[in-house]
Structures are given as structure tokens and as C-alpha cells.
Amino acid sequence: MNPANSALLTDLYQLAMLQGYDHGGMEETAVFEFFVRRLRPGRGFLMAAGLEQVLEFLEDLHFTPEEMQWLASTGCFDKDFLTHLETLRFTGDVHAMPEGTIFFPNEPILRVTAPIAQAQLVESRLINLLHFQTLIASKAARMVLMAPDKLLVDFGLRRAHGAEAGLLAARASYIAGFTGTATVLAGMQFGIPLFGTMAHSFVQAHDDETLAFEHFAHAQPDNVVLLIDTYDTEAAARKVVALAPRLERDGIRVKGVRIDSGNLAEHARRVRQILDAGGLGHATLFASSDLDEYALRDLLASGAPVDGFGIGTRLDTSSDAPYLDCAYKLQEYAGKARRKRSEGKQSWPGRKQVYRNYDAEGRMAWDGVTVEDELLPGEALIQPVMHDGRRLAPAPRLEDIRSHAAANLTRLPEPLCSLQDWYEYRVEIAPALHELARRVDLAQA
Amino acid sequence: MNPANSALLTDLYQLAMLQGYDHGGMEETAVFEFFVRRLRPGRGFLMAAGLEQVLEFLEDLHFTPEEMQWLASTGCFDKDFLTHLETLRFTGDVHAMPEGTIFFPNEPILRVTAPIAQAQLVESRLINLLHFQTLIASKAARMVLMAPDKLLVDFGLRRAHGAEAGLLAARASYIAGFTGTATVLAGMQFGIPLFGTMAHSFVQAHDDETLAFEHFAHAQPDNVVLLIDTYDTEAAARKVVALAPRLERDGIRVKGVRIDSGNLAEHARRVRQILDAGGLGHATLFASSDLDEYALRDLLASGAPVDGFGIGTRLDTSSDAPYLDCAYKLQEYAGKARRKRSEGKQSWPGRKQVYRNYDAEGRMAWDGVTVEDELLPGEALIQPVMHDGRRLAPAPRLEDIRSHAAANLTRLPEPLCSLQDWYEYRVEIAPALHELARRVDLAQA
Known about the structure:
2 copies of one chain form a homodimer.
Chain A: H1 12-23, E1 29-38, E2 46-47, H2 51-59, H3 65-74, H4 79-86, E3 93-96, E4 102-103, E5 110-115, H5 116-121, H6 123-146, E6 151-154, H7 163-176, E7 180-181, H8 184-190, H9 200-205, H10 209-219, E8 225-227, H11 233-249, E9 256-259, H12 264-277, E10 284-288, H13 293-301, E11 308-311, H14 313-316, E12 325-333, E13 336-337, E14 352-358, E15 364-371, E16 379-380, E17 383-387, E18 390-391, H15 398-410, E19 426-429, H16 431-444
């Protein structure tokens, strides 16, 4: 079984509450919205991602016979309730911002409208899916902004938090503008372009470094990118130069080299000189090792002659901010708006829409958040995507999502295109929403 | 298909190298070891976890017909090589420290001895599995040390990085001493005890907070733990006190309350007073919201009357240190020891053993790391677990792994039991290993 699709990918309290709803005959429509409460330090914007996996999960939602049997065996649930679970499917509506859309705190990116049991049950997995891909797309977008014309490849599978994190990080970073990934299964599952060369172990397994290079070139004549830092980086670059004419005679061209340790800027400059002087001006230089958006900015600002970057751990774990302060909250039940007022965790009630306004140059100027049925100036960002449990349109192509993301990035306000964090984008909560919150508080007081 | 078992859960360069090995007829035995290079700031020790999933992956290693078809369709691989991939299985040996064992930098916790293609192919997934569970077990162990007699429950699924991270974080934290998890599927898959109460949405969905409590109590009479911070924490505690006698008449007892926001210590003290004064002295107090080992230490040091904790994001993402500086490196090929010398990333060559020595009180005193065939004083930590691709013993029970971890924690040196980071445990690299490194460097020079 693929656990990614299991209806048991939920917290026990969801089932406890479902039994409570079932017991009390509460089956009215609930509205939940997913949003981010506030940005992590150093971040200025977010990029929505993960919707596609959410819709797949909802379309397929059901308990398998094995799961039902196991649930019964726990003794925690009564028979009537289990009978209801057996036939539970997702029959609700979903509204969302398209994947690749830039968004900001307090702006919902997903709304679920469904009988309360369905909308409640899926909370844990919906947050799990939207949180992670949004986290990674937002981090990757920062790297794309720092190195807009460079080859950027996700190298992070090994230190991603599990298999799914590796696969979805490849997807989210590709949406944000990465060129591709090293993760083979992500190539097969999502059609993401694959990149890869060799590891140190390949060089180490040979008794001689040049022999390793030669051997690799003959086995991969179309993809001769050689890793040159196993022992001594510049010495290895000279070995590549010495080897190149021999390979040329066999019709094989050295496409590039990779450096994975030490001072990358310094090594890149020296290696570039060695390659150029040795007639390998066409060979590209690829760098990896502990890279993130700050390292990219500094490397490129220093003029380091690097053509492409492999970025692993710090992308796939979003290492400086490995989580978002996000929530999936009940905003309405049985036609009445609802609101949580817990200290520091208040939310805006009701079904909402986000309107985006642009300046004369076409850059984002400010967003308005209001109740769903109020029309504000600007572009409405939240659109219906699922009705009665069925998608309203086929899944968009990943390339189209990526183009949408790229278009969004070109419209970012200038200050958000750098890594400064002093700029706060203007998100206006409309008077209608303030008024609704006031009325809800009065009713709940 | 469950992607967790896919042989394509690897980096493209592994397949490129495999084609290189294949092309050159390199099929001799390789030895790779997994180890952590250095501790992250603030950390004093690590706890090994993830071996069980590694062994499952190796036992099942194969390419499916669909995967073979897709690989062929990429045009990156030649026919002979693909034919060899088709029949590839893991036929090697594995040596490892048992899960739950405390370890330190430069100590291998896993050794793979296999034909080089097999040992190389699995690198990405083996790191992915060992890295994550070790990361989480090590983080969870710190929380267990800070709150040894408290109920500790993993609440992290929603902000874990994907489904597998949620499931394996539940497993790793349970190994380290957590009491259980909220993740239902982890209960089904691993038999981990499940805990869960209610969310704010349950309270919000009712027009009246007391009604929500009453309703929940009747639906879950054996597990009446009520969430009291949706609107006003102390007011809700008084509602619980007022409700309790009515519930008692129906034979239902309030088991506890949960607080999820605000100043937890202050709320806990006030709520405890309200409950005690209201005849609910038996009801336990459960706290959650942004907790980690530092918050646990401070809360308990302040005397906050909290009986249990739900710990989510900061556990499941290991938020202050979301990755380990770990590697899986070639240490020997075709009978010759090997070593990488990249700047800042040197490794010790050859097959190794770790010997642990204890002081008079039975606490860990120092470890010795040496070549496999040298005997040092102390307990040998690395044991054979798989031979010719088959396990040497059935998988240990999770409870036994957890007991082993608990026993290890009681033997930690005193300074490592607090959250101070000035103490560095003594790991001695034996002269025999220094000598081997010297010889390898000479041969590779």
C-alpha cells in the first residue's frame, strides 16, 4: 500500500471528533481554509504549492477493508460510526489559488466546503501536503531570484525527510524555477528533467583518478561532467585538460566539471583558468556543497565563474526555516461564520477571497482580503477547482504551473526580489471582514 | 505503488556510475559506511535509528517492469546495462549498531559490503532513511531527558515533511522514549500507542462551548480530555468544573484538559487551581503549542503543573537543526582501503569497529574506533545483521528497540543529560586507523 493515500494519515483526534459529530448527528456543511499566519524571519513572500496532491488525495479518499478491520480492532469506535466511515468519500467543493501563485500571511490558499466529517478528517494530510511543498517552493524561489540565469538542480533526496519529501521537494523546486532534479523517481513520476554526474566513490573505486575520468567518459559519452575534488581540485582539473585530447580522438567531449568542497569561488576561478588555458573553454563549471540562496548571492556577486549549482540539504529541508506557521481552520459551520480566538492564534472568520492589485509597471502593489461575496478591485486569486468531489478541470501540466510561477516572480515588488527582510507587502483586511469578525465574537461571547 | 520501496529512489548519478562500473567490468566487493561527520550546534550525542527500514529496502531491492520500461525510454542507458539492472538484487552483507544505540561523530552506524553496483545504487535511500530517523530519535531523546516522567506524545504529522516523515517521526520518537503518537497510520503500521483528544474546530462547530464538551464526553466516554483554550482558557476550565457533576451522573469522568496557546505555565497553574477547587483533582493537564526540549525544561523548572505534552513541529522537523552532517562513503574496494580527502570532508578508510567503555557507575566513558580486525577494550557496538541479502535474525520488536534506547540513555555521561553543549564525549581514533589512513594517502598520492 502507498501510505500517501491512506485515510488513516490523520491524527487520532480527527476520528474522535468524527465520532462526536456522528453521535450528535452533526452533518452540516463546514468551511475550512488553509493559510499561513505569519512569515518566518528573513522571508518576504510565499509560493503556493501542493494543490495537485491534495486533489488526488481527496478524489481517492476512502478506508480500505484492512483499515476498517484495524479500526474496529482498536475498540475505540462504536459500530454505527464505523459503518459510516466505511462509506465515507469526499463529496465537497474546493477553491484554491493555482500552484505557483505568490501569496502572503492571512491569505487563504485553499478552501474546503464539505460535510463537517469529511472536511475535518482530511485536515492533517491537507496541511501536511500544502505546508511542505509551499515551504520548499518558497525557499527555491529565493534561490531562483538570486541566480536567475543559472542551471539549478535539486540534489536533496538523501537529506530530505523521507521518500515523499525527496519527491515533492523535486516537484516544488521545479515549479519555483529550478532546472531539474537528481532524484530519478521524480523524473519518472512528474517528468522533471534529470541531472547527474558522478560521486567521489566512483573516483575512489579506481586506482587512478585519470583512469576514473576516462572510464566514466566512455560509459557516458554524452554526459561527461567530471567530479574533480576527490583529492586535489586543481590537480584534477589539469588531469582533465591532459585527458581531453585523448577523448576528443574518440569523439567524446568533456561537457563540464563539478567542484563539491573547499572555497568554491576560489576553486572555480582557478579551475576556470586551467580549463580555458587548456582549450576547454566550452566546458561548464558546476558547484555544489552546502549551498543556499545566500551562498548563491555571494558567489555570484564575487564574480565566481560558475554555470550551474547542485543544491541539496538546505533546499530540501528549508534548513533556516524548516516549517511554516500555517493552519487549516474552521471558518463556517451550518451557515454561520466561526472564529478561533486563542491567544496569538486568532483567525479571520468566513469564506474569503483575495484580490491582487498591480502598479503601473505590472508589479504587485497590494492585496485585499474580504468575504467571498464582496467584490474588491483587483484580480481574484481564489478559484473553484473541485465540485462535489470531482475536479472541474484536468490537472494542469507541471510546465504550465512552472510558467505561472515564473510569471508571478517577475511581478514581485522590487524589494522582495532581494534577500532583505525589511519590506512588508501590504495585505489589507477589508472592513467587511472586520465587521464579520466583530459579529462572530459577539455571538460567541 | 509505494514509492518508499522503489529502486528509482536514487540519484541519477548512481545509475550513471553503475553504467560506468558495468562498462568497465568493475564488479568487485565495495565497503561503504554511514557515519555523521560532526554534531550540529547544541547537540552532544546522537541516537541511531532507521536500520529496520534500511533492511526492508535492501531485502526488496529490484526494478519493476514499469521502471525498466521507463529507464529504457529515457535513452540514457545502453541495452547491456539495462539487462543487468533487470536482475539486480541486493546480495551483500550489512553490519550495524542496533537501533536506539547512542553514538558520536566518526563512528559508523552501518556498513554495507556488496558488489559495488549494489552498494552504490542504494546510497541515496540508505542515507535518506538513516538520516531522518536518527535526526528525530536524537531530538526526541533530548525531550525525554528533560521530561522523564511525563506523557510525551508526537503531534507532528501535519508539519512533518510529507507522509513518510510523519510516520517515521512517530516511530523514531517512540524509540527514543515518547509515550505515543497522534498519527493513526503509525499506530496501524508500527503498533505505537495512539493519543488524541479534540481540535478547536470541534468547539467552534458548536454554538456553545459547554455543549461541545458535553457532546464530546458522551461520544468518547473513556477518553474525555477537553480542549479549553478556544476562546478563554480559565472560563472554559470553570465550564468543565460546572459540567463535571452532570457527566458523573451518567457515569462519565473528565480525564483531563488540554491547553494549546498563551503562557502555558501561567494557564496551567490557574487551571490546576480551578480544577482542584472544583473537585477535579484527578483530572490531568495536557499542554501543547510550539514545544521543544528547551520549553519542556523551562516549564518544568518553573513548577508548572503539567502532566503531559503534545509535541509537534519542533520534533518532526527537528526545527533548530533540521539535518545532520552525515555521509555514506566508500571505505574499501577490491580489498583495498579507500579514503576521500576533499577539503573539510576527509573520512577514515577501511572497515571499522567501535568499542564502548564505561566508568565505574556504568556510564559511557569513552569510545575507541579502529579497523575491524583489531580488538580494543570495551563493548563492540557494530554487529552483523544481514548476510547474502538475508537478515540474520527476525526484525526486533519495537518495544525491545525502545528498551535498548532507554537503557542507553541511562548510561549517558552526566553532562550530556542536560542541554549544555560544552561537553565533548571522547572518541579515540586508534593508531591502527591512523596508520591505515597514512598508507591509503601514500598509495593515492
